[in-house]
């Protein structure tokens, strides 16, 4: 297993967070996950995760239900931010230690400089979430409250938006 995956599981154990895990072939999109029926094999809400930036060089990790359209213009306006666009793969690797296809809010454990702010869709509150554990060859199911526990443990800023 990759080092940042092992680090994540060590943190989950340290924080006494329960989760279910399913290993699978590498997936890069929600659609590929559907074809492999990953979402049917675990209990939880499938999530889409986007690593974004604005013109000021600020970074954001947006997590929303997999079936919901990501309206970046609306999110930026609601948060009073300049236009949001996708960050580069190099920025993803440098800041979160992740590669394309493995984007997850759990990647914040690799962001020691706290460059990324999390934006979480309010529809996810109170649900179990299906997320990659810092690799796109597995999916885990964990409670929303436990995701917040991880975010608070890493001392990252986060916002919950409608």
**Strand residue content:** 25-35%
Q: Judging by the overall fold, what is the CATH architecture?
A: Alpha-Beta Complex
Classify the helix fraction into a percent range.
25-40%
Biggest β-sheet: count, sense, barrel?
A: 8 strands, mixed
How many discrete structural domains?
A: 1
Describe this structure in words.
With 162 residues, the protein is α/β, with parallel strands linked by helices. The chain is built from six helices and eight strands, in the order αβααββαβαβββαβ. It has helices at 3-14, 30-35, 38-41, 72-78, 89-96, 144-154; strands at 20-23, 45-54, 59-65, 84-86, 116-121, 128-131, 138-143, 158-161. The longest helix is centred in the N-terminal third of the chain and has 12 residues, at 3-14. The radius of gyration is 15 Å and the shape is globular. The relative contact order is 0.23. The model has no long low-confidence stretch (mean pLDDT 95).
Short description, anyone?
The chain has a single domain (3-161), classed as YbaK protein, CATH 3.90.960. The protein has helices at residues 3-14, 30-35, 38-41, 72-78, 89-96, 144-154; strands at residues 20-23, 45-54, 59-65, 84-86, 116-121, 128-131, 138-143, 158-161.
Task: Give the key terms.
162 residues; YbaK protein; 8-stranded mixed beta sheet; 6 helices; 27% strand
Helices and strands, with pairings:
Blueprint lengths: L2 H12 L5 E4 L6 H6 L2 H4 L3 E10 L4 E7 L6 H7 L5 E3 L2 H8 L19 E6 L6 E4 L6 E6 H11 L3 E4 L1
């Amino acid at each position: 297993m990759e080092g940042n995956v092992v680090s994540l599981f060590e943190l989950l154990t340290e924080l006494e967070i329960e989760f279910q895990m399913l290993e699978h072939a590498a997936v890069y999109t929600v659609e590929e996950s559907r074809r492999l029926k990953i979402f049917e094999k675990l209990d939880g809400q499938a999530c889409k995760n986007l690593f974004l930036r604005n013109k000021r060089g600020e970074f954001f990790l947006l997590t929303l239900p997999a079936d919901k359209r990501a309206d970046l213009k609306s999110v930026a306006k609601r948060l009073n931010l300049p236009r949001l666009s996708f960050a580069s793969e190099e920025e993803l690797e440098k800041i979160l230690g992740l590669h394309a296809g493995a984007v997850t809010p759990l990647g914040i454990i690799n962001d020691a400089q706290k460059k990324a702010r999390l934006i979480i869709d309010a529809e996810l509150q109170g649900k179990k979430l299906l997320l990659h554990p810092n690799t796109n060859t597995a999916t885990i199911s964990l409670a929303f409250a436990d995701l917040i526990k991880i975010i608070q443990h890493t001392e990252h800023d986060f916002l919950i938006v409608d």
